[in-house]
Amino acid sequence: MDPTSPSYPAGRMFGAMNITSVPVRNVVSRAMPADAGPLLTTKKQSSNKLGPPFKVLLHNDMNKREYVVKVLVKVVQELTIEHALGVMQEAHVNGLALVTSTAQDRAEQYVEGLRGHGLTSSLEPDM
Question: Would you say the C-alpha torsion 102, 106, 109, 110 has a positive or negative sign?
Answer without folding.
Answer: negative
